[in-house]
Amino acid sequence: MSAVVQARGLSKRYGANVALDNVNLDIEAGRIVGLVGPNGAGKTTALKAILGLAEFDGELSVLGLNPRTQRTELMQHVCFIADVAVLPRWMRVSEAVEFVGGVHPRFSREKCLAFLARTKIQPTQRVRELSKGMIVQLHLALVMAIDAKLLVLDEPTLGLDILYRKEFYQSLIGDYFDDEKTILVTTHQIEEVEHILTDLLFIRDGKIILNATMDDVGERFAEVMVNPDKAESARTLKPIYERQIFGKSIFLFDGVDRARLAELGELHKPSVADLFVATMKGTYA
Amino acid sequence: MNAGSIGNNPAFSPANKFAWLIKREFWEYRGAFLRTPIIIAGVMLALVTIALLIAEATAQRHGINVSGVHLDQLVNNMSAEQLEKFRNGLSVGLIGLCFPISVGLFFVLFSYGTGALYNDRADRSVLFWKSLPISDTQTVLAKVVTAMFVAPTLAVLGVIAMQLGFLILMTLWSALHGINPLPLWAPSYLIALWIKLVAMIPLNALWALPSLGWLLLVSSFVRSKPFLWALLVPVTAGMLVSMFKLTQELSLTSGWFWWNVVLRVLTSFIPGSWTWLDSNDLKAFAHDDPAAMANLLSFDAFGHLLASPNLWIGAALGAAMIAGAIYFRRQRTESYA
Questions:
Q1: Within a domain: residue A253?
Q2: Would you state the pLDDT for residue B282?
Q3: B212 exposed, middle or buried (CB, 10 Å; 0-12, 13-18, 19+)?
């Protein structure tokens, strides 16, 4: 089994703006990959290239197919939820289920109706009568009923309250994900997805600046809470980030020997959010 | 992996996919395609009813005499020749009844064409459609077939229903006056008329191709306001041609340009618009001659149209613009409205 996504020298410019800068990337099957980056870093551009929605330079293969020339075939095996509320507002729920069943060879009507039965959504309702959260539930029910190999989620829970957000990721992991499937997700609510991710991709200014499994992240990065008297010696170990809390300093280290760090203070596993802030500092400056 | 494998969905077959795309168009535009002809037919029949009631009220008071003969006798004493004329007149009248629905269809198709590849970009639902295994060619062709055949067929059904309603009203009115209503229902002319209406669907569709192609091209290309672009580009072109007399080089008048380009692109959706746009012959309309009017929609006239370069050049240009629309459908996923 080759990589689900394989990119070599993937580049994309919008005029003078470089959205993707010579990106090399491999995503294996059975992973849940978080693509994280500040606004304008190239996340959406990368997803659009993978989905065959935008031209690009370089080589890109998704499930062994070229997303630009073999898009229709690719879409039999790839699903995506682009953002909240992109379902057509005029459509009835029953029509959406029927239509996807009519055009998608890998869709299961029974599965979709079973997912919908767990919600308050009625078949006769139109999408415009549903709340934002219910629209996402409907979209997720449609997508989870498709036996696809790759699911791409671009800010799928933007603007939803925490109940819908939790439920969204719980359904995804509990009822959908298995080791034959791959999920690629971008979101700004990193805290909510970090426990389900297997891989982390940080993107900044069109470049992948971190590409690691979550296990690697735990081994490579460490956060240490240091008393003021040891702060100077901590700084000599070149922390990648420093912040103050309750008169103590918290340092984030990349690839520094744990035994040495333990001498300075209490060791923690950094959260992805802290790691993100540390790696992206100066982005908007 | 085997990308070409058939999936696990029993409801799916590739042949049905296109039918689902057409069904989708119908769902989205059900109101415009179905309700427009029904409402217009209802209004027309109501108007006819009111006119009959007013005529009744007037006749009760004064009695209607035509050239000294009472109306009842007039109809009852018709010779075969007069009856033939009467049916010609009735045919023209029944065709005339189509006109409001035709104009309704024109507005429906004009707004359908400008919105078909634009509205889903404006509300971003294009991202949902593009997440399904449907090619851009299939998407655009489904819209072409819908505009060429689905909406016009529903309009023709509306026309036939309205004509039947009209004949029923006339029958009731005749019965009220002791006039034999049977000539109204002579199958020879009614069926001939309906065959013509149905035969005209593909003719009108071919004739409307440049209009449809233009609207779909604009709809797939512009970032905002497709309706204005669709309207203003041909009209501005016409005004420039008139102002600078650009067509003189080709020894054509600017009137030719307005007639064969501007109006052709903008109004070809009106069913039967070729009767005036192609032949340039408005004599029948001017002379108010029922026989000549009836002749406009004869099979001879259809044959004449099929031999007209205007039809085929327009259809070819329309097909080219549809190809352009498919190209831009692929390129543009978002509008910036």
A1: yes
A2: 56
A3: buried
Strands, E assignment, chain B: 65-66, 69-70
Residues A229 and A163 in one domain: no
Name the pairing type of β-strands A32-36 and A199-204.
parallel
Whether A268 and A225 map to the same domain: the answer is yes
Per the structure, the complete domain to which residue A182 belongs is given by 29-54+72-205
Pairwise CB contact (< 8 Å): A1 & B135: no
Q: Please write down the HEC assignment for all residues of B34-45.
A: HHHHHHHHHHHH
Boundary of a domain, candidates A205, A232, A266: A205
Q: Residues for chain B: how many in total?
A: 337
Longest dimension (CA), chain A: 69
Of the candidates A76, A80, A98, the beta carbon closest to that of B133 is on: A76
Pairing relationship of beta strands A78-81 and A150-154 according to DSSP bridges: parallel
> Within this chain, do residues A124 and A188 fall inside the same structural domain, yes or no?
yes
Query: Are A98 and A191 members of one domain?
Result: yes
Q: Whole-angstrom Cα distance, residue B194 to residue B190?
A: 6
CA distance, residue A168 to nearest chain B CA (Å): 18
Q: Are residues A159 and A92 in the same domain?
A: yes
Radius of gyration in angstroms for the set of CA atoms belonging to chain B, rounded to a whole number: 24
Of B115, B99, B105, give the one whose Cα is nearest residue B28. B115
Task: Locate B301 and state its tokens.
Answer: 């006239």
Q: Does B6 touch chain A (CB under 8 A)?
A: yes
Residue A23 belongs to a domain: no
pLDDT in tens, A123-171: 999 999 999 999 999 999 999 999 999 999 998 888 888 998 899 999 9
**Domain endpoint, select from A151, A170, A205:** A205
* B12 chain-A contacts, CB cut-off 8 A: 101-105, 107
Residue A274 pLDDT = 87
Which value does ipTM take for this structure? 0.90
Is B12 within 8 Å of A101 when comparing Cβ atoms?
A: yes
pTM of the model as a whole: 0.88
Give the other-Cβ count within 10 Å of A167's Cβ. 18
Collect all residues of chain A within an 8 Å Cβ-Cβ radius of residue B7.
Answer: 76, 104-107, 147
Does the pLDDT of residue A283 top 80, yes or no?
Answer: no
